[in-house]
Fold this sequence. Notes:
Helix Hairpins; Heat Shock Protein 90; 3 domains; five-stranded mixed β-sheet; 7 helices; rod-shaped
Amino acid sequence: GPVKIEKPEELPDVFKRVIDYLPAAIVPLRGENHLLGIIIVDNKFNKDPITEIDIRTLELYAALASNVIERTILFQKLQKKQDELEKAYRELQEYHKRVLKLEKFAAVGEIASTFTHELRTPITIMGGYAELLYRSKDLPPVLLPKVETILRTAKRMETIIKNLSDYIKSPEPEIKKLKAKEFLDYLSSLLDIETKRKNIELKLYVEDDIEFHGDPSLLEHAFLNILRNSIEALKDGGVVQVECRLDNGNVLFMFKDNGPGIPPEMLKNLYIPFHTTKRQGLGLGLAITKKIILLHNGRIEIESQQGKGTTVKVYLPQRGGDKNG
Ligand SMILES: Nc1ncnc2c1ncn2[C@@H]1O[C@H](COP(=O)(O)OP(=O)(O)OP(=O)(O)O)[C@@H](O)[C@H]1O
Ligand SMILES: [Mg+2]
């Protein structure tokens, strides 16, 4: 209970520093099972004595204050617990979302990889037969456009499947020494049918004797994606220029078309998978191309001007990778 102190001798040592006027009263603030604090009062200013009524009032006040303090502490503890609970709940929700996403992605990946695997062979066979027919002298001329369409479609499907399977599983490059001239001639021959059909001129300017290192089938895939974009963007009679030269220890490949240019809203999302402006496109072409170029420690830059055309620059280190010399 409250203690009234009238004489200095009665003052416990601990209070000597805080109590400088007597008489004073000390009232404890009791919690449920521990001391919350104390109230010290005196009448230093009006010099009145401390009466029994003063003490009773104080006691009542202390009881009320203790109650309020204890409840506040409890409330704060509860609030803290609630915050922790809310945080845990949010984390759980976030985690749950991530798991769902992963599951969905894994499922999509699995389905896609089954598809690409199952489709690859029949499409290659189809394309092979169409190619045979296309080049055969016995083919009745009326059938030529039809066979051409089959061939073109098969090639388009092959590219889509390659893009998809490269997107699903990262390819392991097999680095070989390549001759730029040979490689680009070969690429241009692969596009023969598409360029002829649209009356597009594909011009090659390759510096003599340039050699570089890379995975031929991955780079074929990457460069075809770039060239197909140009061909798809160009109107009849358009021009694609391919230039290859040395540039600061890099081999620079420049692909330039005089097409409509890349729409500005597309420019920001060029390398993001599934962004496309085409009805028949997955929007994987440049995403995969960039991945392949990066696998070769190279870099890609795209410049485009509305109504003027698009230039894609690919830099590959001349000594790409340390394998095979
Ligand atoms: N040479 C270009 N001229 C004009 N637009 C281009 C050119 N290259 C790319 N684009 C634009 O960039 C977009 C993305 O190209 P990307 O190759 O990644 O996907 P896609 O061609 O739409 O589909 P996919 O290559 O998967 O068949 C295209 O939809 C097109 O709008
Ligand atoms: Mg494309």
